[in-house]
Amino acid sequence: MLREAVSKTTTVGLVTGDYVVLAADKRATAGPMVYHKAVKKISKITDYAALTISGLVADAQYIVENARYIAREYEIEMGGPIPIKALASRISLILSVYLRYSPFIVQLLLGGRDSTGASLYYMDLYGSVTREKYMATGSGSPVAFGILEKNYRSDLSLEETKKLAFNAVSSAIMRDGFSGEGVDIVVIGPGIYSEETIPLKKTIESS
């Protein structure tokens, strides 16, 4: 039952050079029902970090708001942006603390850039946290991960990385009834935080 609750979506994250690319579908479901076709599953935490979410909406929103609070508090106290690794550790601590009596039914990808460069962290409802070069979550993740594993290279250009992220999510959408409608893409890099939505009928041309 926990697996079913966390799986109804497709999100991916990739690191290339100084950039992190996050992508997600836009369909919201509950059981067999489609409730919304324009949901944002990538939440901006700061100007240099974002979180992709899959799982229970209320749980995900709680984690997002706590992540924003943690980042703001750190900036006020320390006078600078929180390292992405430290933010991932604080989020994973929240997940693990609540696990015994009221677990958050979520899977998360935290992507961002700090003084050490670009990074991507995966976190599950158990509070486990791992640093990754690429990762996928949700019900479409087996398809998306297969696309990533076959085509990812550490020397991909930014445009190639965006195209791969789009292809991974769109391929999952074609085979997963819980994912759909379009693909949101967020790019985080040196002085850059950009968002765009790509309908499924369009493609990204490689550079």
Task: Explain what this protein looks like in three dimensions.
This protein has five helices and twelve strands. With 207 residues, the chain is of the alpha+beta class. The chain has a five-stranded antiparallel sheet with strand order 10-1-2-11-12, covered by helices on one side. The longest helix has 22 residues, at 57-78. The protein starts with a helix and ends in an 8-residue tail after the last strand.
Tell me briefly what this model is:
The chain has 207 residues and is α+β, with helices and mostly antiparallel strands.
CATH architecture annotation name: 4-Layer Sandwich
* Overall tally of structural domains: 1
What's the helix-strand series?
HEEEEEEHHEEEEHHEE
Q: What is the molecular shape? A: globular
**CATH-assigned fold name:** Glutamine Phosphoribosylpyrophosphate, subunit 1, domain 1
The rounded Rg comes to: 16 Å
Largest sheet: spatial strand order: 10-1-2-11-12
From the structure above, extract its key features:
207 residues, Glutamine Phosphoribosylpyrophosphate, subunit 1, domain 1, five-stranded antiparallel β-sheet, 12 strands, disordered C terminus
Secondary structure topology:
Elements: H1 2-6, E1 11-16, E2 19-25, E3 28-30, E4 33-36, E5 42-46, E6 49-55, H2 57-78, H3 84-98, E7 106-114, E8 117-123, E9 129-132, E10 134-137, H4 141-151, H5 158-175, E11 182-189, E12 192-199
Antiparallel strand pairs: 1-2, 1-10, 2-11, 3-4, 5-6, 6-7, 7-8, 8-9, 11-12
